Amino acid sequence: MGSYAIFFGVAIGLFAFAATFALFAVYAERKLSAFIQDRIGPNVTGKYGTLQTIADILKLIQKEMIDPAAVDKCLYALAPAIIFIAVYLGFAALPWAPGLVPSKINIGLYYIFGIISIETLGILMAGWGSNNKYSILGAMRSAAQIISYEIPAGFALIAAVVICGSLDLQAISTQQGIITQEHIKFLGIWDVTGMGGILAWNVFRAPHLLVAFVIYFIASLAESNRAPFDIPEAESELVSGFHTEYTGMRFGLIFLAEYSMMFLVSMVGVILFWGSWNTPLPNLGTMQLAAWTTGAVWGIFWIFTKTLLLVALQIWIRWTLPRLRVDQLMNLSWKILTPLAFLCMIASALWRVYVMN
Amino acid sequence: MAGICNELRLIGKPLNGLLTAWKGLSLTIQHAFGFKKRETAFVSEPNYFDKQNGTATIEYPAQKLPVPEVGRYQLDVEMDDCIVCDLCAKICPVDCITIDSIKATEAIGQTSDGTTKRLYAAKFDIDMAKCMYCGLCTVVCPTECIVMTDNYDKTVFDLGKLTYHFSDMTAEEADEKRALLEKQNAEKQAAKLAAMKKNDPQ
């Protein structure tokens, strides 16, 4: 019974985290987009407009949930829940600090990628269930996009997995810092096992992972339906695509899923490429910077900071680059990212066999 | 040869894409960090057009754009200078000015430019909801008492409040003046009748 209480506690905690993060991410997005466009953004509700998103959420909760007459009631009502739960379940396997992970499973990465691909199903249900041309077009585009981009994203991740030799996200994290039992070599030549810090991160252990990270990052933008890959939504051409018909908290859930997805894919990127919860400061002689800044609290701090930086990068990209056309999107995925990701994977295999031994 | 070219293009195009994307990104990040609150300045200031950076937002009620003092926004009437000639009401293309005049029994004063006032304005209303800001009334006014001011913000909660009342007479005063005029007219009529009787030879 006690363990069930812990499970529920963790689940509620993760949900609370996702919701709070979405609130602040929406605020950050509005503020940053305003600054980029020489505007001010919300600045009336609360100091600097900080209460604006909370006010918006309160308004959203009060809104009526409208079922248009022609929708497929079951699919239509279930879709937002499936979209959100798919992303929310992905949070379960993310490690936060040494020894701190909601669910310790040795195929964490595999699980995350399996579970978040269910989001496409939810979007398809939403689009089909809405019984509306724009929605079905949006849903079809979403299926095409997410299925296409899962391939380069997957291979870019495999490139990192090959270097680490594990699918367990906690094991992958441990390898990139000072508490590992293995030998870490910076660029494959310089042994930095006791030193740790930024030198031990995956992108510096095997430099071609930098390319893999760029591929993964681009593909992750597509997976979280963020601009410039937001063609499922495409508010200017598809009237918001698959969620045209949704109102009130159902729309809120779809929105929450998008922001949770941003955080999730950024965190996976950080774990696999940017040293997870490890500190960027190396041990230098008597200055045991890495040893001083490693631990549960520090771990949460580091991974949170790194992830938020990536989220900021996503926001920055959204407000800079224009949306891609469908054919450009497919071109990019199949002709450029997929072959490059394959090359990265092969490079990883060769690196593992010839350099790391 | 063609094969190599194709392969080069396959590398060159994505690279070019990344480079141009970076160009755009660096531009937007400069704007994000170059954030500066806007200062409103008058157009005649020497460095007015140099202010290219910072936000373009004007936080309206708290911050206002300076307008020229000869701006032509709201109509205003200096009643002391008005001789109630009704010209403005006549020229108004949208009939937004309503004037009700009462003839005075004698000269009631002078305007600031020396014109003698002989009429009371019982009513001088301008319906700003109808006004089209053509300014014709200000042009025809012989004493230049009707003018346009630089006050552009006259939002009201009640549409009726857009009808501006400029007459400073109360209803009682107006009735009194009307009675005086009627009395004078009656006296004149009586005098006329008396004179006619006297001249009548019979």
Automatic annotation (TrEMBL), chain A:
<feature type="transmembrane region" description="Helical">
    <location>
        <begin position="295"/>
        <end position="316"/>
    </location>
</feature>
<feature type="transmembrane region" description="Helical">
    <location>
        <begin position="192"/>
        <end position="219"/>
    </location>
</feature>
<keyword id="KW-0472">Membrane</keyword>
<dbReference type="GO" id="GO:0016655">
    <property type="term" value="F:oxidoreductase activity, acting on NAD(P)H, quinone or similar compound as acceptor"/>
</dbReference>
<keyword id="KW-0812">Transmembrane</keyword>
<dbReference type="GO" id="GO:0003954">
    <property type="term" value="F:NADH dehydrogenase activity"/>
</dbReference>
<comment type="function">
    <text>NDH-1 shuttles electrons from NADH, via FMN and iron-sulfur (Fe-S) centers, to quinones in the respiratory chain. The immediate electron acceptor for the enzyme in this species is believed to be ubiquinone. Couples the redox reaction to proton translocation (for every two electrons transferred, four hydrogen ions are translocated across the cytoplasmic membrane), and thus conserves the redox energy in a proton gradient. This subunit may bind ubiquinone.</text>
</comment>
<keyword id="KW-0874">Quinone</keyword>
<feature type="transmembrane region" description="Helical">
    <location>
        <begin position="253"/>
        <end position="275"/>
    </location>
</feature>
<keyword id="KW-1003">Cell membrane</keyword>
<feature type="transmembrane region" description="Helical">
    <location>
        <begin position="109"/>
        <end position="130"/>
    </location>
</feature>
<keyword id="KW-1133">Transmembrane helix</keyword>
<dbReference type="GO" id="GO:0009060">
    <property type="term" value="P:aerobic respiration"/>
</dbReference>
<dbReference type="InterPro" id="IPR001694">
    <property type="entry name" value="NADH_UbQ_OxRdtase_su1/FPO"/>
</dbReference>
<feature type="transmembrane region" description="Helical">
    <location>
        <begin position="151"/>
        <end position="172"/>
    </location>
</feature>
<keyword id="KW-1278">Translocase</keyword>
<comment type="similarity">
    <text>Belongs to the complex I subunit 1 family.</text>
</comment>
<dbReference type="InterPro" id="IPR018086">
    <property type="entry name" value="NADH_UbQ_OxRdtase_su1_CS"/>
</dbReference>
<dbReference type="GO" id="GO:0048038">
    <property type="term" value="F:quinone binding"/>
</dbReference>
<dbReference type="Pfam" id="PF00146">
    <property type="entry name" value="NADHdh"/>
</dbReference>
<keyword id="KW-0830">Ubiquinone</keyword>
<feature type="transmembrane region" description="Helical">
    <location>
        <begin position="75"/>
        <end position="97"/>
    </location>
</feature>
<keyword id="KW-0520">NAD</keyword>
<comment type="subunit">
    <text>NDH-1 is composed of 14 different subunits. Subunits NuoA, H, J, K, L, M, N constitute the membrane sector of the complex.</text>
</comment>
<protein>
    <recommendedName>
        <fullName>NADH-quinone oxidoreductase subunit H</fullName>
        <ecNumber>7.1.1.-</ecNumber>
    </recommendedName>
</protein>
<feature type="transmembrane region" description="Helical">
    <location>
        <begin position="6"/>
        <end position="27"/>
    </location>
</feature>
<feature type="transmembrane region" description="Helical">
    <location>
        <begin position="336"/>
        <end position="354"/>
    </location>
</feature>
<dbReference type="GO" id="GO:0005886">
    <property type="term" value="C:plasma membrane"/>
</dbReference>
